[in-house]
Design a protein that fits this description.
The chain has 51 residues and is mostly helical. The chain is built from 1 helix and no strands.
Amino acid sequence: MIESADYLVMESTYGNRLHIRNDDKAEIFLNIVYETIRKGGNVIIPSFAVR
């Protein structure tokens, strides 16, 4: 745990966006997947791991 600092630098890739509620994310994701499959498309899900 950092107890003090002169500077703090943070990544803010999504800092200027409104975020949807976590409860709604799964439903939105599933709707996108179902619609894509219904239209004969492919769903590609990138994943990242931090170790």
